[in-house]
Give the backbone structure.
Amino acid sequence: MLHQQQGKLDNAAEIYPRILTGREKLLGLEHTDTLMSLNNFAVLQYRLGHLQEAKDTLQQVLEGEDKLIGPESVDLQVSLSNMALVLRAQGELDAAESIHRRVLEIRERLYGSKHPSTMFSLRNIVSLLEQNGDVDAAEELGYRKASFQKRQNVPGAEGALLFSGLLYD
């Protein structure tokens, strides 16, 4: 992860397979630490532009997390958000929107509509809707986000990154 944070993606790409092999041997494939490492590896694949590999890795992570930690865990929320970003990068905008909306629903239920993580999920949907040309829906959701930020003095996207997970959300 440190190599990724320092922008040394090639170094990270060399190291990650060894880390994953070690974790799988030591902990097994169905262990939360192994799944977290796989999620981090998917982030690296995404950052390297290996979108299909990132998608495949995240699918494996999501299946394991759903089984091990349940459908509303924080880790699963992050993995779902990462999957949505990969799908978006692949041009699968409807699938990405569906996943972003699932994360938003989970966060609204768990944290409420005013929580920064919920608002960050809302921002992801607004951005996706704008990219997809659905300006009316984006404006409606965007107004909701702006209204909350004004009342709570919460910063915009830059502030939301403070509450982010492994990739962007």
In short: Residues 110 and 150 are 22 Å apart (CA to CA). The chain has a mean pLDDT of 82.
